[in-house]
What we know:
Arc Repressor Mutant, subunit A, 230 residues, disordered N terminus, 4-stranded antiparallel sheet, homodimer, DNA-binding
Amino acid sequence: MKVKNRPNEIEIVIIEDEQDMLELLEYIFQKEGYRVTGFLSTDKVEQFLEEENPSILIVDRNLPKVDGADFVANLRKLGYAIPVIFLTAKDRDSDIIEGFDSGGDDYITKPFKPKELLARVSAVLKRSGISQYDKLKYRDIVIDCKSQDVMVGDAYVNLTNLEFKLLELFIKNSHQVLTRDFLRDAIWEDDGDFNDKTINVALSRLKKKIDPKEDKNYFTPIWGVGYKLT
Amino acid sequence: MKVKNRPNEIEIVIIEDEQDMLELLEYIFQKEGYRVTGFLSTDKVEQFLEEENPSILIVDRNLPKVDGADFVANLRKLGYAIPVIFLTAKDRDSDIIEGFDSGGDDYITKPFKPKELLARVSAVLKRSGISQYDKLKYRDIVIDCKSQDVMVGDAYVNLTNLEFKLLELFIKNSHQVLTRDFLRDAIWEDDGDFNDKTINVALSRLKKKIDPKEDKNYFTPIWGVGYKLT
DNA sequence: TTATTAAGATAACAATTTGATTACATTCAA
DNA sequence: TTGAATGTAATCAAATTGTTATCTTAATAA
Lengths: 230, 230
């Protein structure tokens, strides 16, 4: 299956007991570029939250064992502050109210329009200060500007601040030649005497960290001008 | 008599000209644990806002002298961003729209169900980032923002006020790099001269208390930038 | 093509900066 | 006034970054 160009790596957790509905939801969100983890019950969710750090929960209120709202209320009691959107077939006032009360950030009634669902998720994420633009992607590199985490393939790479700033700048200006002057102004804020080779060395170190096998050729030197990311 | 502002106790201001209704509203919110200040007119409200810092305004649109919506529009003009919910007996579209236009975050039509009112207040507060949940969790740390209790694993840890504020800030912004500048502004609100190392020392003390064996590595220093909780 | 030259890559070294920690001083609140 | 909390100074350790030197690569002209 073709994976659509992913603008972000925001992780969504869905709890929905109906297999068909769960698959539909997974499809909707994955198509939008979210990373989705689905659960048919609340059983393993708490454990999952311990280990991962998803950005939002989508919870069906009508789950077989526990009421979704109770489950979320319990999560809140335990200290989880993750945003929640409830899915519910009911639309009686009492249910909606209870949903909000137990710590939901929004709710959607089934049947729903996929677009509306996506819009609400988007709105809740925005309110929670989670932006899809915090993460930048380039080839197999994903950098998170808020955490300064860098993933190459599926491995974390430790970069220094200088290296991170460099990589960020290149990714934000990918496919453009960044001249040495530009780099100097942007990263080093020139202090008069500036050794030509400083940039070479800094880039060399960066290359070595994100591509230790030296077979990816992220950077192309433009002779006498600068570099570009390719 | 003025009661000292307790941290994390949410304060609600109600403006309602009918004495009975005001008392009912005060009762409803107080029962839910909110701190309530009621006004029979808009007269003293602005002065009150100068001094206190309530989390939300509940405003009747049909006030004797001024229209509630006009009053709120004026507040907005003055720069108050406090969330507002309108109470209104009217329900024609034009009124509702006017209410939103003048800076309301939600509205409720009388007669209302107490539960619905509470739910809407709750939702608006949540949208504004004001949480009524006082527990936050991060890995094996649970902090109670109200009592300032801190549990690590299953042991209570005694933190000083400064240490608690630091930990709370980091947990609320986990997985993000908090720069030294940010920390200084958020915790120390400093006045110019500020010893660089104050942050190091404060964090060092915090680390020692929540991780005396030094094997948990809650904090990762980002060299030359700040720290993040991981 | 080949020699020449300017630029790029990289390793090793050194300087500098920053972080951690301890001990001590000061402040603040009971 | 006293003790806890917090800021400051000093020391040590470690990480980052710039510099230098050497080698490699690419452009250019004879």
